Amino acid sequence: MTDSDGKDRIPAPGGTGVGFDDAYLGTPPWDIGRPQPALLELADRGLFRGHVLDVGCGTGEHALLAAERGLPASGIDLSPRAIDLAKNKAAARNLAVEFRIWDALDLGALGVQFDTVIDSGLYHVFDDEQRESYVASLGATTAVGGRLLLMCFSDRMPGDWGPRRVTRDELEASFAANWSVESIEEAHLSVNIAPESAIAWRGVLRRTTS
After folding, report:
1. Which residues of 87-97 are buried (b: 16+ CB within 10 A; e: fewer)?
2. 17: CB partners within 8 A, 6+ apart
3. Any bridge partners for residue 207, and if so which?
């Protein structure tokens, strides 16, 4: 999407998901048609385990990756268009993935505990109040001992394109209660427009208590 100043913007979240749904009338910057390389690396290291949930899944590449590796997988997104595209991909690849239109701030209502939860570029769209609610929502659906694999824009990313930047301290503070930070590393979040990647944080966080 483009503002009047000519700069591409990632749409802001909303309760109806309208901004994100409109983005899928075309190909949004974050939809690269394959898993994020930094998350694929974690999968190759064996960190995709058990029942996997892809939160804000878009067109579903990370849930599909989990299914390709024989894991039960689900994906949720507020965008009906994104979910339709994800379902079409699953059918074309003959993969059994449950894709649902769902609010990431109400994950507990899914009534399922997941062993691995993936957030590829969702955490950074929320404001402070929403972020607190989102972390609580993640806690409600991540099994004790399960992991959250998270990627978000970093404050080390120059310029003002894209979503709000996140500091390492903000990430650590968000997950200070009931989570253990196993690692937070600088990584690259691939996009389909120049400069083709953004500086990001890649976090691996373990749920310690409910």
Report:
1. bebbeeeebeb
2. 77, 78, 79, 80, 101
3. 179
Confidence of residue 152 (pLDDT cuts 50, 70, 90): very high
- The residue to which tokens 């909303």 are assigned: 14
DSSP per position, 144-191: EEEEEEEEEEBTTS-SS-SS--B-HHHHHHHT-SSEEEEEEEEEEEE-
Cβ neighbours, 10 Å, residue 156: 14
Measured distance CA(35)–CA(82) in Å, rounded = 15
Query: Angle between the 37-44 and 61-68 helix axes, to the nearest 10 degrees?
Result: 20
Q: Residues of the chain with pLDDT > 90: what percent? A: 86
The domain spans of the chain are: 18-207
18-207 under CATH 3.40.50.2000, yes or no: no
Predicted pLDDT at 194: 81
pLDDT score of 116:
98
14 SS3 class: coil
